[in-house]
Specification:
This protein is an alpha/beta fold and about 180 residues long. It has a single domain (about 10-170), classed as MoaB/Mog-like domain (Molybdenum Cofactor Biosythetic Enzyme, Chain A), CATH 3.40.980. It contains 7 helices and 6 strands. A 6-stranded mixed sheet has the order 2-1-3-6-5-4, with helices on both faces. A hairpin with a 2-residue loop joins strand 5 (about 125-130) and strand 6. Helix 4 (about 100-115) packs across helix 5. The longest helix has 15 residues, at about 100-115. The radius of gyration is 15 Å and the shape is globular. The N and C termini lie far apart (about 40 Å).
């Protein structure tokens, strides 16, 4: 879709890598997401790497959602089918609303790249406490595809006909009602 005639609005994005095997020095997916968000003009608000522990992941997601300096949380890793893949469950423990179409669109994008192997991803998106949350697979290719084809346009205020940024101020309006 085209970009409307309005100014770019940077958002503050936190990046979380969940893995029992990766270290900060070899976090290629986290590095890719940080590079992409900065290239787009957004701000890196926080970054962390946690082992595959549902309780710890959910706790950090809640902390970041409570932080007024974070608008979006993107996690990478832990979205597969193995026993230690618990990032999706941790996200859903935090969500107030799930963005169902995110998983559908991600599957569509993935299908074009990796065929039926896309069925093994459980990528998800949601909203909590006025913050967007997205759980991406741990591969750099999946992170690149999700960023380039879904998140970059949706996190660009100029993207038409609609985008995540323009409704960001209204995500927590139910919390402000009396």
């Amino acid at each position: 879709m085209s970009k409307a005639a309005r100014d770019f609005v940077p958002v503050r994005i936190a990046i979380l890598t969940t893995s029992d095997t990766r270290l900060p020095a070899d976090d290629r997916s986290g590095d890719l997401l940080v590079a992409r968000l900065k290239e787009a003009g957004h701000e890196l608000a926080a970054r962390d790497l946690l082992p595959d522990d549902r309780t710890d992941i959910a706790a950090l997601l809640r902390d970041w959602c409570a932080d007024d300096g974070i608008d979006v949380v993107i996690s990478t890793g832990g979205t597969g089918l193995t026993g230690r893949d618990v990032t999706v469950e941790a996200h859903r423990d935090v969500y107030e609303k799930e963005i169902d179409a995110f998983a559908i669109v991600f599957a569509h994008v993935s299908m074009a790249k990796i065929g039926t192997s896309a069925v093994q991803s459980r990528a998800t998106g949601g909203v909590a406490n006025g913050t967007y949350l997205f759980a991406l697979p741990g591969s750099p290719g999946a992170c690149r595809d999700a960023w380039d084809e879904i998140l970059a346009p949706q996190l660009d205020y100029r993207h038409a006909p609609c985008n995540f940024v323009e409704i960001l101020p209204r995500l927590d309006e139910h919390l402000r009602r009396k």
